[in-house]
Write a structure and sequence with these properties.
Strand 9 and strand 10 form a beta hairpin. The two termini are 22 Å apart. It is built from 10 helices and 23 strands. By secondary structure, it is α+β, with helices and mostly antiparallel strands. It has helices spanning 21-28, 44-64, 77-82, 112-122, 168-189, 269-274, 297-307, 335-350, 364-374, 384-388, and strands at residues 32-36, 39-42, 67-68, 74-76, 95-98, 104-107, 131-140, 155-165, 195-201, 208-215, 221-226, 231-234, 253-267, 278-279, 285-286, 289-296, 309-310, 313-314, 325-330, 355-358, 378-383, 391-396, 402-406. Strands 9-10-13-11-12 form a 5-stranded mixed β-barrel. Helix 2 (44-64) packs antiparallel against helix 5. It binds one RNA strand through residues 9-19, 36-37, 85, 90-93, 109-110, 112, 141, 143-145, 147, 152, 203, 220, 259, 264, 292, 330-334, 362-370, 372, 381, 383-386.
RNA sequence: CGGGGUGUAGUAUAGUGGUAGUACACAUCCAUGGGGUGGAUGCAGUCCGAGUUCGAUUCUCGGCACCCCGACCA
C-alpha cells in the first residue's frame, strides 16, 4: 500500500486524555480512533493488525475442530431470565435497551445462553457430540469505569468458544487442548514469554477457572507468579491458594498483569436451565457438559503494544504487523531514486510481500520517525546515498544494524 | 458506585472580569532534502445552559464529557 493513499496521519503528540502506552501509540500511529470512554474504532492499520490476530486465532480454532459462527448482539430477555442472568442484581454490567413495542432487549456480554438455546434445534444425538463452536464477535459490558486504553472497554471484540461434551473426561481432554491452543496463540502474537496460566476463582463446577495473564504494568490484576513452574495464582483466591498449585512452593512473586483470556468449566448448568438434551447410547436423555473459553482481541493487541515498544513507538512482532516491510523512498524528488523504490515496491508486491510504501513527498527524518512509530518489523530505505553505496538499506525495527543489499538482488531478495 | 481532577483551534498547551497567545498540523510560496529542515503569508478556538456583572472564556450554580485513585469486573 502506498502511504500517500493512507488517509490516517500520525501524530507527534499523544492525546492528553490517554495515559496507557498502548492507547498512546495506537492513536498516534493512526491504528485506532477513540469514540468515547472505553469505545475505540479500528482504522486501516489497526484493522490489518486485527485481521492478523484473527487469522492466528482461526487457525488454532480450526485445529481444535471448532466451527465458526457469528451470533447477534441483541439478546432476548426471556432467554436470560431462564438462566437467572437478566436481573441487574445478578449481572450488573448489562447494556439494556427497548424495542419500539417496549420490549426490553439486552446487548450480549457473553453468549452461553443463545448458543445453548440454538443447539436445541440442531443437537439431538450422542452422535452429534463432542461439538465446539466459536465466534469473533462484539461484546458489550457496561463497565463502571473504562481504563487502561484499549485494555478495558465497554464494547470490544472477543473470540468466544463453547464446547459440548458427553462425559467429564471428554470435556477435560478438550479443556486441556484449549490451553495448548491458547499457548500457541500467545506465542504467535509475541507475548508467550510474558503470559502465564493463572488459577482463578472457579464456580459451581470446578475449584478453579484458568486465566491467561500477561505481565505488564498496564494490567489491572495482581497475580502471584511461580517463576519455576511459570504458572500463577490470581490474588483474588490467594486466601485459599497460598502456594503454587503445581509444585507447592510458597515463593510466589506478585506482578501486575492483564487478563487476556480465560477458560471455564460450566458443567451442565446452562444445558439444564435451557433444557438442552440429547439421547445417549442407551437412548436416555442427557445433558451435555459445557466449557466456555474467551479471548479479548483488543486486550491482546494492547498487551502486544505494551510489551513490544520503545520510546519511539511500536515494534510489531512479525505475525501481527500490519505490513511485513516498510519501504521508504528518500528521493527528494529525484527520478532515478524514486524509480528504484518503485521497482522494489512492484517486485515485493508481485511476490506477495505486504509493503507499506512511503512514497510521500516528505523529508527523510519525518519518514523515519513515522516508521519507528508505526513499527513495521523490516525497513527498507532507497536513497541517493544508499544507491551510491551500492543498493538498498535494510534494517530491523528495534535494532541498529543496517545491511546493504545490492540493487541486482531486488528480484529475488527475501527477508530472513 | 465513592473520592479527586480537567474541559481553550485538527493536536498539544499559555493566559485574562474588557479585541484570546504560542507550537505542531493544514493552505500558498521561497529555500532545503538521511532522523519530525529554515523562512514568509494565511486558515482555524474558549463544552452546553442559567446566574452575577455595564461586560463572563475567566466568578457562581446546573448539565454534559473526559481522566485518575478506589470499589466493581458472568
Amino acid at each position: 500500500m502506498r502511504q500517500s493513499h493512507l488517509f490516517t496521519k500520525t501524530r507527534r503528540e499523544a492525546p492528553a486524555d490517554e495515559v496507557a502506552k498502548n492507547a498512546q501509540f495506537l492513536i498516534r500511529g493512526g491504528f485506532v480512533h477513540k469514540e468515547m470512554a472505553g469505545v475505540y474504532s479500528f482504522l486501516p492499520l489497526g484493522l490489518r493488525v486485527l485481521e492478523k490476530v484473527c487469522g492466528i486465532i482461526r487457525k488454532e480454532m480450526k485445529t481444535l475442530g471448532a466451527e465458526e459462527i457469528f451470533f447477534s448482539s441483541l439478546q432476548n430477555r426471556v432467554l436470560w431470565q431462564t438462566t437467572d442472568r437478566w436481573d441487574d442484581e445478578r449481572v450488573d454490567n448489562w447494556f439494556k435497551t427497548k424495542m419500539k413495542s417496549g420490549t426490553e432487549v439486552g446487548l450480549g456480554f457473553t453468549h452461553e445462553e443463545p448458543i445453548t438455546a440454538m443447539l436445541k434445534t440442531h443437537l439431538h444425538s450422542f452422535r452429534d457430540l463432542p461439538l465446539s463452536l466459536f465466534q469473533i464477535q462484539t461484546k458489550f459490558r457496561n463497565e463502571t469505569r473504562a481504563k487502561s486504553g484499549i485494555m478495558r472497554c465497554r464494547e470490544f471484540l472477543m473470540k468466544d468458544l463453547y464446547s459440548f461434551s458427553r462425559t467429564l473426561p471428554e470435556h477435560e481432554a478438550f479443556y486441556e487442548k484449549v490451553k495448548g491452543a491458547y499457548r500457541n496463540i500467545f506465542d504467535a502474537v509475541g507475548i508467550g514469554g510474558e503470559t502465564f496460566l493463572t488459577f482463578a476463582a472457579g464456580g459451581t463446577f470446578s475449584k478453579y477457572s484458568h486465566e491467561f495473564q500477561t505481565v505488564t504494568e498496564a494490567g489491572e490484576d495482581t497475580i502471584h507468579l511461580c517463576e519455576k513452574c511459570r504458572v500463577a495464582v490470581n490474588e483474588e483466591i490467594l486466601h485459599e491458594q497460598k502456594t503454587c498449585p503445581v509444585c507447592g512452593t510458597a515463593t510466589l512473586t506478585p506482578k501486575r498483569a492483564v487478563e487476556v483470556g480465560n477458560i471455564f468449566s460450566l458443567g451442565t448448568r446452562f444445558a439444564e436451565a435451557l433444557r438442552l438434551t440429547y439421547r445417549d447410547e442407551g437412548g436416555k436423555e442427557a445433558f451435555p457438559i459445557m466449557g466456555s473459553y474467551g479471548l479479548g482481541l483488543a486486550r491482546l493487541i494492547g498487551a502486544v503494544v505494551e510489551i513490544h515498544s520503545d520510546s519511539a513507538g511500536i515494534i510489531w512482532p512479525r505475525n501481527v504487523s500490519p505490513f511485513e516491510v516498510h519501504l521508504i523512498s528518500v528521493d527528494g524528488g529525484k527520478e532515478e531514486v524514486r524509480g528504484v523504490a518503485e521497482e522494489l515496491y512492484r517486485s515485493l508486491s508481485e511476490r506477495g510481500v505486504s509493503v507499506l510504501f512511503d512514497d510521500r513527498d516528505a523529508r527523510a527524518g519525518e519518514k523515519f520517525a513515522d516508521a519507528d512509530l508505526i513499527g513495521i518489523p523490516y525497513r527498507a530505505v532507497v536513497s541517493e546515498r544508499s544507491l551510491k553505496e551500492g543498493g538498498i538499506e535494510l534494517k530491523e525495527r528495534g535494532r541498529e544494524h543496517i545491511v546493504l543489499v545490492p540493487k541486482s538482488d531486488i528480484p529475488t531478495f527475501t527477508f530472513a
